[in-house]
Structure to design on (195 residues):
């Protein structure tokens, strides 16, 4: 099979097998709170730049980074971009005591589209399930995330691959696997070989 068909097949499989991530619905109606060491506000352009140990909170959603730039459009919707060696995202799932955790060197949050995009060494984790790629889009509206391996690769490196660990659903009455059986989250580009 050709490489393009393999990528399409893998992307389709991930979309079908991806765990549902039901975002806390009340979060979208909550105000954005930001904390940082410094802040620069440009009222004319509607751009606020927060630097130094930045924390953006909206309800149960928390985004952390070294720098976050928030742009507000004319209708009042906000678009935040977090930067960091590894910026992080966390949000509670609707009606459950579970969280979705995400990481990337850049995280973009769009209040109009209700999406969160993770770029460069992107990871998204829900309980024991985890996906990795160079770009992950997580839709808070449709509760679906899309992972792809597109990114900037030096010419002599092979293209990066999408990786997923999808745990089987526990049988009724069975206890879920313990934490030591899971893949630890580390800030690294190398992953265990699937071969």
């Amino acid at each position: 099979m050709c490489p393009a068909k393999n990528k399409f097949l893998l992307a389709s499989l991930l979309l079908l097998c991806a765990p549902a991530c039901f975002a806390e619905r009340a979060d979208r109606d909550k105000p954005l709170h930001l904390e940082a060491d410094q802040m620069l506000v440009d009222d004319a352009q509607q751009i606020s730049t927060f630097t130094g140990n930045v924390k953006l909170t909206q309800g149960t959603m928390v985004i952390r980074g070294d720098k976050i730039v928030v742009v507000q459009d004319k209708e009042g919707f906000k678009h935040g971009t977090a930067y960091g060696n590894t910026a992080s995202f966390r949000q509670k799932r609707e009606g459950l005591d579970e969280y979705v955790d995400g990481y990337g060197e850049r995280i973009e949050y769009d209040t109009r589209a209700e999406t969160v995009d993770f770029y460069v060494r992107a990871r998204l984790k829900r309980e024991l399930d985890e996906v990795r790629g160079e770009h992950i889009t997580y839709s808070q509206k449709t509760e679906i995330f899309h992972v792809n391996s597109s990114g900037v690769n030096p010419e002599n490196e092979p293209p990066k691959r999408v990786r997923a660990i999808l745990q089987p659903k526990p049988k009724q009455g069975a206890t879920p696997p313990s934490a030591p059986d899971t893949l630890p989250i580390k800030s690294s580009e190398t992953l265990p070989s699937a071969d």
